[in-house]
Design brief:
By secondary structure, the protein is α+β, with helices and mostly antiparallel strands. It folds into three domains: 3-44, no CATH class; 56-135, Phosphorylase Kinase, domain 1 (2-Layer Sandwich), CATH 3.30.200; 140-368, Transferase(Phosphotransferase) domain 1 (Transferase(Phosphotransferase), domain 1, Orthogonal Bundle), CATH 1.10.510.10. The protein contains 14 helices and twelve strands. The chain has helices spanning 3-15, 21-29, 46-56, 98-109, 142-148, 155-174, 196-202, 241-244, 253-268, 279-290, 319-322, 330-339, 350-354, 363-381, and strands spanning 32-33, 39-40, 58-67, 70-77, 83-90, 119-123, 130-135, 140-141, 177-178, 187-193, 205-211, 218-219. The strands form four sheets. The chain has a five-stranded antiparallel β-sheet with strand order 3-4-5-7-6, with helices on both faces. A three-stranded antiparallel β-sheet has the order 8-10-11. Helix 2 runs antiparallel to helix 3. The chain is elongated.
């Protein structure tokens, strides 16, 4: 926009803004000369100015974390005082990166689910070096909760957390979206303390769960054979065996496997169930603990690029040894076995897992809470 048009259309608006040193510095970068001149002295990058003003609306409080795809900040709206999470993602020379586009697209598609992080706004412009995603702010991620919250070992809380994770996955899968990077760090929690009388009945606290970080997510078609996906997904310890074996036509069962790994970690209140620093090592750790599959137990096995008939044969270990807490919990052991089936065709779906008897004591309350949250979200949009 040239300076004449900028002064005609933007000048009166800018001149009426309240005095603010930071705001004056931003406007000066776009050619605004303050009093007594009070006009733009050169052409204005309108997209860049809009982005700068929108960013100014949110004041950074502190950095929450830095990952492979960007930095997350805690910010506060200068006008309303409400807090949010602001995710800063680097752009490419051509605009948004593929990961950013995936995340924005998926979060918008899944905006109706109370167990998926809410995307409030996308801030970017063609000339910007970063894209900013304004999202819901929660208290902590599941890993921090597991390491520091006393209630993390409460079985009812574990059931509530996992039921909500599965609810989010079911919604994503119903909309033909795989997350592909489910792990404790990507599961966010909002914790609401309850009165002492309600604590005993409700599991010590109300825990709201939202799945986040959809940078590796992607859409899929219902028949896995028609898919062709990369195998460079999912943090190693939560990666499904079919991906480790080189499958390029996997389905949404990879998310259920990851959720099963997270559930085992919650029940053990320790480190991940399967651990290694390389893919072959992790595959062998899975086989040692769950048993080495054969073409008889998994007919599609020989078709996998990384399969070898020379793999060591391990009979597997009792689940009660791997997760001692399930020694006297037959329903819990059955659910974990179904979620961690090495053969993906025998693996339970997220929808089926939600109907498992292990969740009977938390299902009514979780569904009631989800209904209330969904109603509140719809009211807010209206």
């Amino acid at each position: 926009m040239d300076s004449v048009a900028a002064n005609q259309f933007l000048g009166p608006f800018v001149a009426a803004l309240p005095p603010c040193e930071t705001l004056e510095r931003i406007l000066k970068n776009f050619g605004w000369a303050g009093a007594p001149v009070g006009c733009f002295t050169r052409g204005v990058d309108l997209g860049g100015l809009c982005l700068a003003l929108e960013k100014h609306l949110y004041s950074r409080v502190k950095e929450l974390g830095t990952g492979a795809y960007g930095t997350v900040w805690r910010v506060v709206n200068r006008e309303t005082g409400k807090h949010f999470a602001l995710k800063q993602l680097p752009n490419t020379a051509y605009g948004m990166s593929e990961a950013t586009l995936r995340e924005v697209t998926c979060l918008r598609e899944l905006s109706g689910c109370p167990n998926v992080i809410g995307l409030q706004s996308v801030m970017t412009c063609p000339s910007a070096r970063s894209t900013y995603l304004l999202m819901d702010l929660l208290d902590c991620d599941l890993l921090t909760f597991l390491q520091h919250a006393p209630i993390a070992s409460d079985l009812r809380v574990i059931k509530s957390v996992m039921f909500q994770v599965l609810t989010g996955l079911r919604y994503a899968h119903a909309n033909s979206i795989m997350h592909r990077d489910l792990k404790p760090q990507n599961v966010l929690l909002g914790i609401t303390p309850t009165p002492a009388a309600a604590a005993a009945a409700a599991g010590a606290a109300g825990v709201m769960v939202k799945i986040a970080d959809f940078g590796l997510s992607r859409g899929f078609v219902p028949e896995p054979a028609e898919n062709a996906h990369t195998d460079w997904v999912v943090t190693l310890n939560y990666r499904a065996p079919e991906i480790l074996l080189g499958s390029r036509s996997y389905g949404c069962g990879v998310d259920v496997w990851s959720a099963g790994c997270v559930l085992a970690e919650l029940l053990n209140v320790t480190s991940p169930l399967f651990k290694s620093d390389c893919e072959v090592g992790l595959l062998f750790d899975i086989f040692q603990k769950l048993g080495t599959p054969t073409p008889k137990t998994w007919p599609d096995l020989p078709a996998h690029a990384n399969f070898s008939p020379e793999f060591p044969h391990w009979p597997g270990q009792p689940l009660e040894k791997l997760i001692p807490r399930l020694a006297n919990d037959r329903a819990g052991a059955d659910l974990v076995k179904r979620m961690l089936s090495v053969n993906p065709r025998r693996r339970i779906t997220a929808s089926q897992a939600m109907q498992h008897p292990w969740f009977d004591e938390v299902r009514p309350l979780a569904q009631q809470r989800a209904t209330c949250v969904t109603t509140a979200m719809q009211t807010q949009r209206a």
